[in-house]
Amino acid sequence: MIVPGVNLMMYGVYGFNVARAFNKPSTGDLVYASLMPYLFFVTVAFDKNSKFVGLDKYKKEPSAFVKNWLDPIIFAVIAASIIRTFFLEAFTIPTSSLEKSLMVGDFLFVNKFAYGPKIPQTPIAFPFAHHTLPTMHLGNSNFAFPFPDNTKSYLEWIKLPYFRLPGFGKVKNGDIVVFNYPDGDSVFVNDQNSSYYEIIRQVAYMFKNQDYTNNQPLKSDNTYQKEAWEYMHNPNNTFPWNDMPIGKIVARPADKREHYVKRCVAIAGDKLEIKDWEIYINDKLQAMPEHSQHKYFVYTKGALFGERMQNKEGRVVLTNQKLLDELDIYVTEADLENTKTDTCIYVINMPKDVVEKVRQLQGVISIEKKIEGKAKRDMQIFPHDKSYAWNNDNFGPLQIPSAGMKLKIDTSNICLYEKILSTYDDGIHQIEKKNGQVYYDGNPITEYTFKQDYYWMMGDNRHNSADSRSWGFVPFDHVVGKPVFVWFSMKYAENNPISGKSVIGSLTKNSKEGKFRWERFLSYVGDNGLVSVKIPVIALILGLWGYGKWNKRRKLKAVANAKNR
Fold first, then answer.
1. Is 542 helix (H, G, I), strand (E, B) or coil?
2. Residue 253, exposed/middle/buried by CB under 10 A (0-12, 13-18, 19+)?
3. Which bin fits 503, alpha (ψ -120 to 50), beta or left (φ > 0)?
């Protein structure tokens, strides 16, 4: 009853038992009492024929449906909800942000006690659904079953303040962390996988580029930003890059924002800087994760990795899929940069060990790191301000705020911390720049004291990761937990079109040739990679099974001996 969300289900359990205690065990009465317990309590109270007989004395057993199905299902949902909320929750890795540390197709459990489980802030929610109800389409039709497309899985009738129970530890440098996506506080319902703020910035850039192409006078960036905002907030307009209607924009509470998983490279209080793709924390060079990936220019004699082509999903990939698959290079992460007379230049994303394998291939001339130079601004990189010429490989220095830290705030650095002041730290506030000063809810400020810790999260796949370099800081109240156990792992055909294609045929193949990554099954997620625990897990399962068999025989033998006395 003290678990938000679960306590709502417990009211149904109370109704169920009250119905039985008042000798109303029919399926209709039990369903009514479980779904609408308060109305049922009133009905029983005003029913002159109602008589309390107690749970041990009701006259009839419940129907087979209630006894064998409804009762066990309710118990299972409640037990699983408690486990999912406070202890362990199942996740799958959907993107290659942490490739090859945690890989696309890894199915894992996240330990929520690692940093302390959070109490649900929106407790009225459909069990086991995160922010959207599950749905499927029948054939090629637009008919969605059992719920319409993009239906919210939660109600905001009751909202609870943020509260976290004590955990086993604190977030440390190098931890792989699961968290709620901070930039996901607003989403386009018809494009929930994209950042709302990034889409607004892209549309603003498109408007500016159109004026430049048409030789029109250029306006200020703020003007283009306002025009983009107005255009994208008209649900009848379409996304500029396709014909899909923009539709509704919805706000999501923190606990219902998309789950992301990244590596924490900087904790609260750290100073972060990236120089030529190397990370420095407090001016000290940090070791790269063992399986980190970067992009390289690969110069070859002839089209070693093939030419460009469009696959079934509409993505541009290279034609020599067999070679890429053998090297476990995703076909979606390799591109043909340029073709000269007898030399091809590829841009390929890969870890160091694969770089050495590629270097040994016949036809490879040389390999060079792909590094975005200093002072070369990338518009998609935080803080999205022309005053900061930062990019993926050269970024910072940037101070990561901690609870109680006081920083000077002015018009030159407010873009770095504006989202913290306006949204994350202490509810919604108005931030303005005027007359050369920063105004906080109409009052000028020159410094600010932060109220919680913040973190900087990055993917190990450094050139193919939407991470803090794109959207900034992660507040502690968005931290969910830590990946702890990979129980299953498989490849997908869109990335590994050769080995990741067949399911049945892969059952007798090794991890390199088949769909299943057998070495990743039943593995603990350690600080330096996965640690296989297959033998202890299998031994535990067999031990529990054997104990159950032995215990059952022991009880049957005891009953037989009692009858013979």
1. helix
2. middle
3. alpha
Mean pLDDT across the chain: 88
Average pLDDT over residues 42-64: 77
CATH of the domain at 346: 3.30.70
Nearest CA to 366 out of 293, 298, 318 is that of: 298
Q: What is the C-alpha to C-alpha distance for residues 473 and 456, in angstroms, rounded to an integer?
A: 6
Q: How many domains does the chain have?
A: 3
For residue 67, give the DSSP letter.
I
Q: Which of 383, 416, 449 is the last residue of a domain?
A: 449
The answer to whether residue 59 scores a pLDDT higher than 60 is: no
- Interior/surface letters 533-553, b for 16+ CB within 10 angstroms, e for the rest: beeebeeeeeeeeeeeeeeee
Instruction: Determine the 3-state secondary structure of 404 from DSSP.
Output: coil
Cα–Cα distance for residue pair 503/511, rounded to 1 Å: 12
Residue 233 confidence (pLDDT): 94
Q: Is residue 115 part of a domain?
A: no
Is the bond preceding residue 351 a cis peptide, omega within 30 degrees? no
Residue that finishes a domain, picked among 58, 86, 114: 86
**pLDDT value of residue 190:** 87
Residue 414 located in a structural domain: yes
Rounded CA separation 204/379 (Å): 11
Q: Bin 472: left if φ > 0, else alpha if -120 < ψ < 50, else beta.
A: left
**In the predicted model, is pLDDT for residue 58 greater than 60?**
no
List C-alpha distances in Å: 24 to 17, 58, 70, 172, 318: 10, 8, 16, 56, 68
Contact 106, 518 (CB under 8 A): no
Q: Which domain holds residue 57?
A: 6-86
Query: What are the beta bridge partners of residue 275?
Result: 278
Question: Does residue 310 lie within any of the structural domains?
Answer: yes
Instruction: Tell me if 554 is assigned to some domain.
Output: no
